[in-house]
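To: structure subgroup
Subject: Chain for Friday's discussion

All,

I'm putting the inputs and outputs inline so they're searchable in the archive.
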Amino acid sequence: MGAGTEPDGSSRSDEEWERFLRESVAGAADAPKEPSARARDVAKRLRAQPDSGPEGWRSYTPARPKRRTGWYVVGLLASLVLLVVALVPGRVVDLFAGDDPDSPAEAGQQAEAGQRPTVDEPFRGSPAASWASGAAGIAVPEARAVGWMSAAEVERALARSRDFLVASGLDRGVLRGERPEKAIALINPKQKDVQDFLATAFRSPSEKNDPLLLFSRFQPSRTQLVGDVVKTRGRLTYREGERGALQVTADVTFVYPVTRADGGGDDEIVRTIVRRELVLSWDDPDKVITEPGTFSIVSNKYDMTNGGCGAPTGYLTPPFGTDRRADEAGTEVDPYDRSTPVGRGASDECARATRS
């Protein structure tokens, strides 16, 4: 076959053959070029990697920062807490104090400076502003069988123990000076020393026989309660006592906002604060003479501030005006500090409250 002959036997012209030789030497424009060694190495590495989408050969993808989700969440929560503290500080303190009425956080709660109480807000500026109202502030534990009582009987006894606290310290009639008949009905009528006390206390109050030892009462001609709410904080606890009895201990603080009954030409509001500790014994009737549904009083203590000084009258006598300034000579106490034991008692009832 000649130099200018095609495979099918046709012949090329001398010009076409010459152009073919030149392009063969120079390389055709669209002829594939052999890749360099570096390109082959890159191609090999790319083929060995899983396909994650196209990526430029010299493109730069910065390393992804490690996710710090935990720190992000902590920061977000901290910001929310600061916001809540700014809006409702009293609620936050109460929240962190939890259900423990003796929590140090609660004891350290400070009243807002310059927040005077008003008729519409009698607890304004007081730690008690965030407390529960009435019986709701008295915590009752879960009942279990103790001594001679089943769990159901213990539950009833705890409920009646709280009923006594309500009838003696929250009943509106009793607070206005009426005789606490409902509360007295829950006390064992066979407990002679207590019955002797009750027979004398309301008729001839004295240091030994003062109804304030068990009951909160104001003289209606002198003092008037502000609003319908009394703030409370406290709890009941129990254990097995003597002769298999159920022994219940109550430790409760009551905060009473009051003003002058006659108005006195001003809107002065005083908060009387009474903290009581009562130990009650629900005795086995087969071992102790008692009446069903009643308890015996083992012991009682109370601390009181802004409740008056001087000889017992059978009533709480909050100081107003000049009387209040005279009472400020007493020992300073924090009536909201429930981490300390109860027990100043009547002998130190003129103690001055550092906050109310």
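Points worth raising on Friday:
The beta strands are 132-133, 138-139, 223-225, 231-240, 246-260, 270-282, 296-305, 332-333, 352-353.
The longest strand covers residues 246-260.

D.
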